[in-house]
Design a protein that fits this description.
Helix content is 0%, strand content 62%. By secondary structure, the chain is mainly beta. The protein is globular and about 30 Å long. This is CPXCG motif-containing cysteine-rich protein.
Length: 60
Amino acid sequence: MIEHFFQCPYCWEQVSVLVDTSIPEQSYIEDCEVCCNPVRLNVSCQYDKIIVFEALNTEQ
């Protein structure tokens, strides 16, 4: 597990999430810990590292 920081697409605050890098492709929704809006996270991992990380507004 790696802690990854990103900017919320709603409130623009810096928030963090734990990413399980043993799973190569992930897509899930997690609420922002600041504004509580749902954020879609798309993550690609390889060799226990995050290769792609997207935090998207769920309305997109």
